[in-house]
Amino acid sequence: MSDLSLKPLIAAARGLTPSRQPVWFMRQAGRYLPEYRAVRSKVEFVELCRSPELAAEVTLQPLRRYDLDAAIIFSDILVPCTAMGQTLTFDKGEGPVLSHPVRSAADLSRLKRADAVRDLGYVGDAIAKTKAGLRSDQTMIGFAGAPFTVASYMIEGGGSKTFTEVKRLLFKEPAVFAGLLDLIAEVTCDYLAMQVKSGADALMLFDTWAGQLTGADYRSFVLPVTKRVIAYARTLGVPVTYFPGQGIDRMFELAGLEVDVISVDWRTRLASASKILREVGLEVTLQGNLDPQLLVAPEQVVRQRVRDILLEARQLGLKGHIFNVGHGLLPHTPPESLTWVIDELRAFR
Amino acid sequence: MSDLSLKPLIAAARGLTPSRQPVWFMRQAGRYLPEYRAVRSKVEFVELCRSPELAAEVTLQPLRRYDLDAAIIFSDILVPCTAMGQTLTFDKGEGPVLSHPVRSAADLSRLKRADAVRDLGYVGDAIAKTKAGLRSDQTMIGFAGAPFTVASYMIEGGGSKTFTEVKRLLFKEPAVFAGLLDLIAEVTCDYLAMQVKSGADALMLFDTWAGQLTGADYRSFVLPVTKRVIAYARTLGVPVTYFPGQGIDRMFELAGLEVDVISVDWRTRLASASKILREVGLEVTLQGNLDPQLLVAPEQVVRQRVRDILLEARQLGLKGHIFNVGHGLLPHTPPESLTWVIDELRAFR
C-alpha cells in the first residue's frame, strides 16, 4: 500500500509507503541551537512553555535550519502537573522540581482535575501558531508524558535516580498510586484531545521511566492505564507513538498494545526491538535510533552510523521506519552534525 | 551432577546441585547497617577500603546478622584507579570523583601500570582476614569493575548521566580509548589474580555502564577486552560472574562469552534473560534479581516476590540460580527486610 499524498511521517506511522524517508529529532528545539538560547536568555523555561508566540517560535527554529518532516510542540511533560496544582520550577542544572510531592491519600485528594482547555489552552494555541508555519507535508506532533513517568515526578517532586518514593507509594499504598495514575490518565486524555483539536497530526507518549519497574510491576500497575490512554488517543484519528524508555525489557510486556509506532532507545538495536515486538505479536512502525551522543563524532562516523541504521531498518522489513535519535538531543550537540545526518539520509538508496 | 561438599554458591555457579539455595546481596556491607555507619563515622570511605582490618570488619558485619552464603570484599571498583595515578574522593552525596580525567593520549601516557601486589595488596590482606572469619561453606567473592565501566569513570572524572566525554574519546580518539581499556584490563587481570591468591573463591566483574553504548559499539570496542579479562579470570580456577548492567540489550551481544554466571538486573525478567542468553548460545547460571527498592514494601509483599523469583528460576530450568538483588542494596533498606527474604528463601520447597 502507498499513499504519496499523505505526509511522510503519517504514511510511515500507518505502515504505508511514504513519499520520502521521514526524519525528526527528539528535542530538536533546544539549547544546542544558538537561536533557541537567544530566546531563552530573555524568559524562564516555564514562561516560554506558557507563551504561544515564543513556544511556536522555538518549535519552528529547527525547521528553518534543517529539512525535517515534523515539528514537535515545544513544551514539557510536566506542564500538565501545573494544572493539577503543583508548581514547576527548574533548578540550575538540577532538572525539574515540582512542589507538593504526592505521597499520601491526602496529597492526592488535594490535586485538581485539570480542565485541559481552560488550564492548558496555551499549548493548543502554540500548536495552532506553529502549524501555520509548517509546509503541508510536515507533521505537527503533540505529546504528553505517559501516566507512570509523569507520576514518578509528581511523587518524587522532581527527578530521581532510585525512585524511592515512587516505590514506597506503589508498594505501601497501591490504591493511592493507582488513583494518581488514573487522575493523570484522565487529564492526559483531555490534554491530548485538545492538542489534536488545535492541529496536532500525530501524538507521542513519553514513558521515559517505564523501565525502572520490574516487568511484573509494570504489567500489573502501569500497562493497563497506559493502554487506556493510548487507545483513547487513537480514537482521535491520529497515529500514536509510544516511547517505553531505555532498554527493551518493557517490549516483552507489550502484547496486546494497540499502537502505531514504538520509539526505540539507542541502547537497543532495532533488530532486537523488532524481534521481540514480533514475538509478542506487535507489528508496528519503529522510530529511531541514532545515539544522540554520537553526534560529537567526526562527519564520516556520523554518516556511517546513519547508513547503518537505515540499512538495518530496511533489512528488517519493518512495517515502517521514522528516523530519529534514540533519546533527546543534548545541549552540546554540534548543530552541523544534524545537517550531515539529514544529508546522508536523503542520499540513501 | 551434584557435589554437596562444595560451597553452595560455587556448586550453583558450576551448574552442580548445591546443598542449599545460595543467597547473598550486592552491597550487603553498607550504609543501611547501623554497625557499618558506626565504623564509617570514624573513617573516610577511601581510608576504610585501604584498611585490611576495617574492610574485613565491615565485610563480615552482614554475615553476623544474616544466614548468607557469601561475603564480597568491601571495596570500590575505582580503587585500582588510585594505583594508576588518579586520586579518588567522594563528594557528599555526589558520588566518586577521580582527579586527572583521561581525555587525551598525553593523559593516558601519564597513567601508571599499577603493580597489584605492591599497590593494591591491602585488598588481598582484607580478603585473607575476612576469609578467616567465614564458615567453610561460605564463599569469599573478590571483584573488579569491567574495563569499560572503570574507563567511563576515569574519562569523566566521576559519574555521568550522559557519558559525553566517554563518547567524545571513543568516537574522536578510538586508539586512546582502546589503549585505556587495554591498560585497565592488564591491571584488572593482575588485581583479580592477587585476590584469588589471597583467598577469593569466586570473582565478579561489574560492567554497570556497559548498557550505555549501542550494541554495535559495545561489540566492537568493549566486548573483546572484556572477554579477555573474563577468560584470564577463569584460568585462575574460580567461577566468574559478569554483571552487564541495566537491561538485557547487552545479552544479545554475548555470543561466545565463556563465563559461569550472568548477574541479572531487576529491570529484566529472569525469563527474558534466560531466553535471550540461550538464543545466543550461553547456558549459564543466573544470579538475581529482586528489586532492591522492593525492600521498603510490607513483609507479605517482600515474601511473595521472593517466592515469585524462586519459582520463576525453577520453572526456567536454569543451569543454576544464585539468589541476589538485581542491583546494590540502598542506604534506606530496612535491615529487617533481608531477614524476611532469607527466611522465605530457606522455607521455599
Describe the structure.
Two copies of one chain form a homodimer. The first copy, chain A, has a single domain (8-285), classed as Alpha-Beta Barrel (TIM Barrel), CATH 3.20.20.210. Helices cover 47% and strands 12% of the residues of chain A. Chain A has helices spanning 8-13, 34-40, 45-50, 52-65, 79-83, 105-109, 116-131, 147-156, 164-172, 174-198, 215-235, 270-279, 299-315, 335-347, and strands at residues 70-72, 88-91, 95-98, 139-145, 202-206, 240-243, 261-263, 285-290, 321-325. The two termini of chain A are 20 Å apart. In chain A, 56% of the residues are buried.
**Main sheet characteristics of chain A:** 7 strands, parallel
Per CATH, the architecture of chain A is Alpha-Beta Barrel
CATH-assigned fold name of chain A: TIM Barrel
Radius of gyration of chain A: 19 Å
Cα shape of chain A: globular
Q: Determine the oligomeric state from the structure.
A: homodimer
> Which CATH class of chain A?
Alpha Beta
Mean of the pLDDT scores of chain A? 96
Q: Compute the separation of the termini of chain A in Å.
A: 20 Å
Task: Tell me the number of structural domains of chain A.
Answer: 1
Q: Which pair of protein chains has the largest interface, and what are the residue counts? A: A-B, 34 and 34 residues
Which stretches of chain A are poorly predicted, pLDDT < 50 over at least 5 residues? none
Give the % helix of chain A: 40-55%
Helix-strand string of chain A: HHHHEHEEHHEHHHEHEEHEHEH
Q: Count the helices of chain A. How many?
A: 14
Taken as a percent bin, the fraction of beta residues of chain A is: 5-15%
